[in-house]
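Below is the record:
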Amino acid sequence: MMITKSELQPRADLYRLLSRLYRVEVDQPLLDALKELRFPQAENETLAEGYAMLRGYLDSCGPEALDDLAVDYATVFLAAGSADGAAAIPCESVYTSPKKLFMQEAWEDVVRIYREKNLARETDHSDLMEDHLALELEYMSLLVHQRAPQDEKYFLENHLLNWVPQLVADIDRYARVDFYKAVGRITLGFLQMEEQLLAALTDGTLRQAPSYSVRAERMDKILAQLKERYRVFAPKRIPKRGPKGTDLIRYGEIDRLSDIVYKEKSHFSAKEVFYPISQTMFYFTGESASQKELEDERDIILIARPCDINAIRRLDNIFLHNGQSDLYYSRMREKLHIFMLECRESFDNCFCVSVGTNVCDDYSVAIRIDDICALAEIRDEDFLPYFEDEVPIEFMPEFVTQNRRNARLPKIRDRQQLGEICKLEYWNQFDEKCIACGGCNTVCPTCSCFDTVDIIYDETSRDGERRRVWSSCMLRDFTQTAGGALARKTQGANMRFKVLHKVYDYNLRFGGSEHMCVGCGRCIDRCPEGIDYLDTVNGLTDALAAAEKEGN
């Protein structure tokens, strides 16, 4: 197994964030930034507990939070107000020396290590001992960037893990609010995960993924070799197939590097590659039925941006982890191998950063393309033979960090509040605006609704096939029952259903760590009536705030 260079950055970032939290009390910019963070799912129980506790505090803290945190920082880490000096002093020597004193053996060893690395304290760290936790965590961040797992492992085992568990226990004892209790748990859980990771990196079980520079003509040959075993799909330009004779960009099979459209956003998502618009499920006669077999046994390479890759996980949840696994989806999904197309700049109407889909690590190969060559980071060893004769380089994929537009997602507490939201007059405006074309669902990478249709080959026979065909919750007759009744009778009701499904229902159903919408903005680009989904979501947040203010 391999760890990619792009996976190193989040580790370094978390080390630096924790370092900042221990170095000095929280200020307003940091508190605001923390409130916007999306915490990842964590397998480590302590880390997961810390994330949940911190999220709970940030969601509920009031206007006095900064004062409360400043008091707690002074109480917990500086022994303020303690007659006997009882506190969680974040210095290694205090926890590892017999008399609990500063500048003891651990401090001397840390100073030696820093000196050997030619490191010195920065000016704003001059008041901290070298074995202060903030500096030790900052040092680990540096080692991550230097890709020095042996040094990381030594420092983690011989310094941090020698005393941080005791420190975290004391934080839990002296902290008055949950914030620093959560920070302690996150620190300990993260270090425990690091211990496992570094053990795997140093014993050869896990290794860092290699990267290569491949000239365009060489990449074309690699693609030709890959196509012997795989079908290769990427965003591709189809001339004069768009509205009013414009070019259309959608996913299709490619033969060469120049076929890939990487400077523009595709008009359609990647889902039609593995979840076809129309899909025959089985054939039937008057006496029997037979399942439709796949026509091409080759696996599929899908070259897609992070938002579309994150969208695949959402479809996986819907089709594979939502009760019984869907056969027709799963057999195509099993063939899929992801090549991540690096996306460093935001397009119009993208808001992936707001919903946390601007980054991903679920891929076999990451590629950056320009007019001359491709840079490739190989994570899946099955693809190494295709690239290992190319020029080795240091390449770390980059991700969008800021969009031109941002989403403000509504925070819905419970089903009772959801019921109140459903009654808002806000939704009535879409009764006239929306023409029920369903175009937004068609281009959405996470919409999954379908109809089943029986096709009879001849009106005098009973032979035919059953097809699964994409459908849309925005169509007027989508909720029509056999008796002709409609569960949702207006376009405002349909818009309400779609939006709340994207920003609430999916999140509630699948663990609360992510929303269904991935922020690609294609629905905004597509709508013929100019309905802006991002404005709709932000408007809902404002309408909800206004309703709560009026209720108070």
The two ends are 56 Å apart (CA to CA). Residues 211-393 form one domain. Residues 324 and 552 are 44 Å apart (CA to CA).
